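Saturday, quiet lab. Running sequence design on the structure tokens for the scaffold JK sent over.
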């Protein structure tokens, strides 16, 4: 391979020293720029791989949080999240989110180019795909143990291909009206969502809320067989705390790709500083959230019952809440602010988790308190404590930063905070007007909720045939009733008749009622 000097000598054989020196300088700058671009592409892939590994964390967390009769179903849904998201994001999602962002400075609602494409950079496409897959998989745990497979496939493709991309376009694309990189940013600053507390977590968490409102709670969770409210909601503890902890730690590891990796998008000379700040913030906020939730719950339980208990579940979800909350401002807040954000996130989780139970909203893995409510807190916190120093390093802006800093300077400038509030309202409104009708339609078509017998025997038996009555903790007569029920359906279909007079020896309603009375739903 010829050296730069030899290339220039060949290009300018009669050139004097000045011409050759200028050629060498230009070639060297081009070579450095190419190497930097190549390194950035590699780092995109590396960070994206860490984020993609979070899919394993979600799968382990969900699997450990459900009863053993639903493990296969839950894990398959997590796998299908990755599959469906990749296809949908390639076909249309990337185009809607980032298509044409480098071709025009005009503000737009949605991207209109780069369909069935990875755009200008395969590395950037892969990085953004992992974010869309993360947003989609948030919903899996909330709907666990009662959602049909068909409904889940429909929802995951729709969210990754259209709902999430519109939010990403609005906040992250150069053409989004809330983007800080917009040529004419909203309120002169735009919104700051460094790694996606809003774009990823509020979108996924809000979708989970609307889905479970339409889907309804698991049978026996809040109501008895006659539909009467239970005095005390029935808990359905997961079958493996070890899997829950493993999933939590995998997610935390993946967050070090999620947050520091987002610094690559800044595209300036301060990427390393912003990435290091994001890594420190991620470690501190997650730790503060776990400690906050653990000891706050310990205090509450001691006051309520006189018996203090250290809850591993509270510590895990508190840590995840801190990680979600810091995601919005991880690269632009000081370390002390990260701790404060994490501490408050633990309290937000405890309060909102209890609120869902009070409102009889069933969330099998507490994804709504962790992702939606702490996503909201994280976006707001950025508007409050974004550091002037870090805002200049990351975005080159000096006039707008956290509201608390402005108050300390004697100013009431709340433009950044205002942009953050508008971002939250836009995401909530968008998911409401799109996903709520979508889930209502799925429910109307009968594609959303598993029937009572399927839920009773477990979705592993219903959809996968992989758990027997002994190992799955399901009564033998329920499994037999389910098989007779399915056999009757196949018989009617094969004879092309609708024999409404046929009834299995044990109907869905009878089996479910007996399970309520026996307390068997906890298995």
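Result came back. Writing it out in full:
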């Amino acid at each position: 391979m010829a050296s730069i000097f030899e290339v220039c000598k060949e290009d300018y054989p009669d050139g004097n020293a000045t011409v050759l020196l200028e050629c060498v300088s230009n070639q060297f700058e081009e070579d450095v720029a190419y190497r930097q671009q190549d390194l950035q592409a590699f780092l995109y892939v590396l960070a994206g791989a860490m984020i993609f590994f979070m899919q394993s964390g979600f799968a382990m967390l969900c699997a450990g949080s459900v009863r053993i009769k639903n493990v296969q179903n839950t894990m398959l849904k997590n796998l299908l999240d990755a599959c469906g998201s990749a296809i949908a994001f390639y076909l249309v999602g990337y185009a809607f989110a980032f298509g044409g962002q480098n071709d025009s400075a005009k503000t737009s609602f949605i991207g209109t180019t780069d369909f069935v494409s990875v755009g200008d950079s395969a590395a950037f496409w892969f990085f953004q795909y992992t974010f869309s897959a993360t947003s989609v998989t948030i919903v899996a745990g909330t709907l666990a143990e009662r959602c049909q497979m068909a409904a889940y496939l429909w929802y995951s493709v729709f969210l990754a291909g259209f709902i999430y991309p519109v939010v990403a376009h609005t906040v992250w694309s150069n053409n989004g009206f809330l983007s800080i990189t917009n040529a004419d940013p909203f309120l002169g600053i735009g919104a700051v969502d460094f790694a996606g507390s809003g774009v990823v977590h509020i979108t996924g968490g809000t979708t989970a809320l609307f889905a479970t409102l339409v889907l309804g709670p698991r049978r026996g969770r809040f109501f008895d067989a006659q539909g009467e409210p239970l005095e005390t909601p029935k808990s359905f503890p997961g079958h493996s705390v070890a899997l829950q902890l493993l999933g939590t730690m995998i997610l935390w590891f993946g967050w070090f790709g999620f947050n520091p990796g987002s610094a690559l998008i800044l595209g300036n000379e301060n990427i390393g500083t912003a990435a290091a700040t994001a890594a420190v913030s991620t470690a501190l906020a997650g730790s503060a959230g776990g400690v906050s939730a653990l000891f706050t719950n310990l205090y509450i339980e001691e006051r309520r019952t006189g018996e203090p208990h250290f809850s591993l579940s509270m510590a895990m979800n508190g840590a995840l809440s801190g990680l979600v909350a810091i995601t919005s401002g991880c690269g632009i807040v000081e370390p002390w602010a990260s701790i404060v954000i994490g501490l408050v996130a633990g309290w937000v989780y405890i309060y909102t988790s209890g609120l869902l139970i009070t409102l009889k909203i069933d969330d099998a893995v507490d994804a709504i308190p962790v992702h939606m409510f702490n996503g909201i807190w994280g976006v707001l916190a950025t508007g409050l404590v974004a550091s002037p120093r870090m805002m200049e390093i990351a975005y080159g802006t000096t006039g707008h930063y956290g509201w608390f800093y402005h108050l300390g300077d004697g100013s009431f400038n709340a433009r950044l905070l205002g942009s953050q509030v508008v971002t939250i309202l836009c995401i909530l409104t968008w998911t409401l007007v799109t996903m709520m009708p979508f889930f209502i339609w799925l429910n109307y078509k009968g594609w959303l909720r598993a029937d009572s017998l399927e839920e009773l025997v477990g979705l592993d038996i219903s959809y996968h045939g992989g758990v027997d009555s002994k190992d799955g903790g399901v009564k033998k007569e329920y499994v037999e009733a389910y098989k007779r029920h399915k056999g009757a359906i196949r018989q009617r279909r094969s004879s092309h008749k609708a024999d409404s007079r046929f009834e299995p020896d044990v109907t869905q309603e009878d089996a479910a009622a007996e399970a309520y009375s026996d307390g068997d739903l906890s298995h």
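Notes for JK: The CA atoms of residues 66 and 341 lie 30 Å apart. The mean pLDDT is 89. Ask whether to fix the surface positions before the next round.
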